[in-house]
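Quick illustration, no need to memorize.
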Amino acid sequence: QVALVESGGGLVQAGDSLRLSCAASGLTFSTYAMGWFRQAPGKEREFVAAINRGGGRTYYADSVKGRFTIARDNAKNTVYLQMNSLKPEDTAVYYCAARRSYNSGIYYSQYEYDSWGQGTQVTVSS
């Protein structure tokens, strides 16, 4: 059974950085595409970033492009989200997601993922 566990969230000030980690188990990690999503209070869950199974392709939401970086370490079964220049509007619960991939595709719709972590809270104060 696939399990995803996020960590690294916290309370920071605007302009600070955080690195989120998502440790995966119960899967052959290198055959899964991964994504990060977030959900702010009162809002729907939204796409943040995605990476293909090999790590060579990435895709970002416009709102985080240039500030966030997604990366993965297939030897450690872990995907990361480096978040720089954080803004108060980045405040949300951040979730990682996984889906089996048979090619080099990346996926930005939450409906394309079938495994989810429990989320980690990121709060950015102004």
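The chain has a mean pLDDT of 97.
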